[in-house]
Amino acid sequence: MSEVNDFIWNIFRKNKKDIIWIIAIATFGSLLASAVPFVYGKLFDISTSSGSPLNIIFSLIALWFLLSLTSNFITNKTSEMGEKLGVELTMGTENESYSHFIKLPIPYHKKERRGEVLQKISRSAWNLQRLVELFSQTLPFFMMLVFSVTAMFILKWHLAMIIIFSFLIYTIITIKKTKRLMKIREKEDKIYHFQYGKIYDKLYNVFLVKNFAMEKYEEDNISKRTRKLAAISGYAIKKDAQLSTIQDIIYTVSFVSILSLAILFLRAGQISSGEFIMFFGYTNMAFAPFRHIAAIYRNFKRVTISIKRLVKLRRLVPEEMKHGDKTIPDFKGEIEFENISFKYPKGKQVLKNIKLKIYPGETIALVGKSGVGKTTLSELTMGYYKPEQGKIKFDGTELQKLKLNWIRNQIAIVPQDLNLFNDTLINNLKYALPNATKEQIVMATKAANAHEFIENFSKKYNSVVGEEGIKLSAGQRQRIAIAMAFLKNPRILILDEPTSALDAESEKRVQDGINKLISGRTTIIIAHRFSTVRRANRIVVLDKGKIAEIGNHEELMRKRGIYYNLYSLQRGIK
User: Which residues of 436-470 are buried (b: 16+ CB within 10 A; e: fewer)?
Assistant: First the structure.
């Protein structure tokens, strides 16, 4: 919990000028409001005394009006400033958290539900805003409590002691009951995030749901989880209401006790009628903050539940923090794997003692059965994972010593299926080169055999591709991926099953684009289709996480080993 408190404190510390200003204004407004009961108490005594000058009476009425108007204006201004600060803090926290989330390593993104994480960020930021707004709204009331109790001490300390005693009991019970309530809220929060993550996952994969006609099944699942959430929320509301009832009893008993004692003092002649009215006003002023202060405490505890999950997320170390800051002038594109071994967390060994040197401009094809580590080797090249043992070097410099953004800018990936943003084609293409001109983009799409189909769209390059590029065919998405690689103009190219899901015509168009793209670049091709690997300078055959064979197509066919068997099976020779 100390980490959560530190997180909240750091946020407030960064905005201490605004907070100090809010406190100062709230204090001044509360001081003015605290003078109001004194003024109308005196006004009552003077008004009921015979021979009181009218000018004094009207002056006190004017002062009462002015104090009330000014204090109300300042209270509203304090709330306004608090709401504005709350929005700024929310936006700042969300921006920092989303930026941190994007910078986290690939293993984290593969493991966690994106919807659940996004909801953690959004809910925590929103709760933080609520806390700031409550603070700004409650602060004037709290200051009024302090000033009103001080005034009552000066007038009659017996009455002030009842308020202090009541406030202590009220606070102790609130803290004790809130601890139990927060355990329920924590469970509610956990279910809420899980529920949101599940719904996001189903919406994200809505075509899978429809393909299997599972709408009713998912509707029932959502309904079941919603009922579970409603049950725990209802129980929390019930406990919250019970606490409010206890607080109301304390408030009522204390209020009646003070007024009863004040009546006794009035009857005994120890206070005047005006002072009795003052006490009535100060009693109202003292007790008004009770529920507000209890509310801010409960909300603070509730906010800590959401923020605890956010702090856990932000504690994770971003990728770039694990890398050096070197770059390589005149980078050639040589890659060397020195005795690389790797296994996924809680998984089996994927790669074992991989030793391979890829020369600048050379094309290497990685082949083998599914699960032998072909894609894993490319992910290690990108720095998505760190090898269990061994080193990866670029032009003789270890990957871990290089600046991560720099090395990734030297590599372009053409994946098996490119996911695009739900944006225009030109904005998606510019993601590879943000400052690209229209001429550069057209040159890249022509080289990738994509310009022709783009021009056939009604809005051409301004056509929106839909979520994940759903409005484009698989072949069209592949050609966009190749165009983006042309725009990036990397020294190293990774082609991960680029034509595996395409028909013959689309494959030919994509292959033509790939042949242009490969020229002069260090290239790693991962493929099951041997039509894409035959032109490679060397073919590396992986089996059980090791390099089993290496050579060009003709050499490996003459060996009649694993490659020969895989090739023969695909060509229907066996």
Answer: beeebbbbbbbbbbbbebbeeeeeebebebeebbe
Report the candidate in 304, 306, 110, 349 with the shortest Cα–Cα distance to residue 192. Answer: 306
Q: How many domains does the chain have?
A: 2
Which tens digits make up the pLDDT trace of 442-458? 988 888 888 888 999 99
Identify whether residues 347 and 252 lie together within a single domain. no
Q: Cβ contacts of residue 399 below 8 Å, gap of 6+?
A: 323, 383, 391, 392, 393, 407
Please indicate, yes or no, whether residues 389 and 312 belong to a single structural domain of this protein. no
387 and 506 fall within a common domain: yes
Q: What is the helix (H) or strand (E) element at residue 450, kind and residue range?
A: none
Q: For residue 329, is it within any domain?
A: no
Count Cβ atoms below 10 Å from residue 369 Cβ, excluding itself.
Answer: 13
First-to-last C-alpha distance (Å) of the chain: 65
Sheet holding 397-398, edge to edge: 349-358, 335-343, 389-394, 397-398
**Is the whole-model pTM more than 0.85?**
no
pLDDT winner (highest mean) among 170-184, 185-199, 385-399 = 385-399
What would the pLDDT profile of 262-300 be if each residue is shown by its tens digit? 888 888 888 888 888 887 788 877 777 766 666 677 777
Helix or strand or coil: residue 306? Answer: helix
Whether the CB-CB separation of 314 and 124 falls below 8 Å is answered with: no
- Confidence class for position 505, pLDDT limits 50, 70, 90: low
Question: Do 343 and 451 belong to one domain?
Answer: yes
The whole-angstrom separation of Cα 383 and Cα 335 is 13
Say which range, 63-77, 221-235, 300-314, 384-398, has the weakest mean pLDDT. 300-314
Contact 516, 450 (CB under 8 A): no
Q: Is the domain of 377 the same as that of 422?
A: yes
Residue 325 in domain: no
**CATH code of the domain containing 341:** 3.40.50.300
